[in-house]
Amino acid sequence: MWQIVRLYPLTILIPVVVFLLLCGLGVWGVIAGAESLANQRKDEARSRALDSVTGFQVGMQSASL
User: Fold this and answer.
1) Rounded to a whole number, what is the distance in angstroms from the first to the last CA of the chain?
2) Alpha helices per DSSP H over 1-65
3) How confident is the model at residue 65 (pLDDT cuts 50, 70, 90)?
4) Are 4 and 11 in contact (CB under 8 A)?
């Protein structure tokens, strides 16, 4: 086998490059997906907090009238 690799180095080089490329894309995809989910949850939490504050302000205004 190593004789073939010595004669034709692309025999091992191409699969290794493709493997590394696919692993890199997979890791990037997982990181991007996790970051997107975290941002989505932060936005949802901000929205709920804003709704709660708005409801509290409306309640305080109506109580003071």
Assistant:
1) 89
2) 2-7, 10-64
3) low
4) yes
C-alpha dist (Å) from residue 21 to 15, 17, 25, 63: 10, 6, 6, 63
Total count of residues recorded for the chain: 65
Residue pLDDT, tens place only, 5-50:
899 999 999 999 999 999 999 999 999 999 999 999 999 999 999 9
CA 56 to chain centre: 34
pTM exceeding 0.85: no
Residues 6+ apart with CB under 8 A from 19: none
